[in-house]
Write a structure and sequence with these properties.
The chain is an alpha/beta fold and 256 residues long. It folds into 2 domains: 137 residues, 3-Layer(aba) Sandwich (Rossmann fold), CATH 3.40.50.2300; 105 residues, Beta Barrel (OB fold (Dihydrolipoamide Acetyltransferase, E2P)), CATH 2.40.50.1020. Helix content is 32%, strand content 30%. It has a 5-stranded parallel sheet, sandwiched between helices. A 5-stranded antiparallel sheet has the order 10-9-8-12-11. Strands 13-14-15 form a 3-stranded antiparallel sheet, with helices on one face.
Length: 256
């Protein structure tokens, strides 16, 4: 088998170093370059034509999906996305059979991911890879819920999702907090989460979702957890399992 020419793209030097170290230990893999921004990655992909790109999803100048869109799915090599988001945020990548590395990752996880990519590259034509990436781009244009209908006796309230500050689970219900008003909806938190745009609504706890546009500060607490401060003054504790998602928000606080 010919050597796999790999390009590393991440705006964090420590992450690039970790990937470089892991790839260097793999037989049949040649590192052809590193990029610390999306714009550098686009130039390198078009000029160097790597077989595989390990691509950070969220960078300072653009997202990994922006890189795919600007290069074009037909010209993109195989991609392994590198992300700090939790499992809920990478469902789209799994559904389109594109592998990902969840930060922090170890050498074994990196090795397994690269080997899977090698197998896919050997078995699949470029057309199939292009179709796979196009499906991922199409999934980004999914129409998320704009309003939520809440029944209140014989009345049905139409609640705009952009009026929601935060959401919490309450047994078999969820409570929508919208400024001074709140609504009780017969639904589960996970089901409602799947209807909301993940670029705007972030799961911060097993019982809470927050509208990131309402966040004015994040307070670090002991034990690897945080407290989200909203415009209203409300403070919401986060769950430890959502730490990486909170760090990603701190790194890139702008909702799409």
């Amino acid at each position: 088998m010919s050597r796999l020419r790999a390009l590393i793209v991440d705006d964090e030097a420590l992450v690039r170093s970790s990937i470089r170290s892991g790839l260097s230990a793999l037989d049949g893999v040649e590192i052809i370059g590193e990029c610390d921004s999306g714009s550098q990655a686009i130039d390198a992909i078009l000029s160097e034509r790597p077989d595989l790109v390990l691509l950070d999803i969220q960078m300072q100048d653009c997202t990994g999906l922006d890189v795919v869109q600007r290069v074009g799915p037909e010209q993109m090599p195989a991609v392994i996305f590198v992300t700090a988001f939790d499992e809920y945020a990478v469902k789209a990548f799994e559904l389109n059979a594109i592998d990902y590395l969840l930060k922090p990752f170890d050498d074994e996880r990196l090795s397994n991911s690269v080997r899977r990519a090698q197998k896919r590259i050997a078995e699949r034509k470029q057309t199939a890879l292009a179709e796979q990436l196009q499906a991922l781009l199409d999934s980004r244009s999914q129409k998320w819920a704009q309003r939520i209908v809440v029944r209140n006796g014989e009345r049905f309230d139409f609640v705009p999702v952009d009026s929601i500050d935060w959401i919490e689970s309450a047994n078999n219900y969820v409570q929508l907090h919208c400024g001074a008003r709140s609504y009780l909806l017969s639904d589960t938190l996970t089901n409602l989460e799947n209807k909301l745009n993940p670029a705007t609504f972030l799961r911060i706890h097993r019982r809470r979702i927050v509208n990131v546009s309402r966040v004015v500060a994040v307070h670090s607490l002991l034990g690897g957890v945080y407290e989200m401060e909203l415009r209203s003054g409300t403070r919401l504790p986060t769950g430890r399992q959502h730490r990486e998602a909170i760090l990603a928000l701190i790194k890139n606080p702008q909702p799409e």
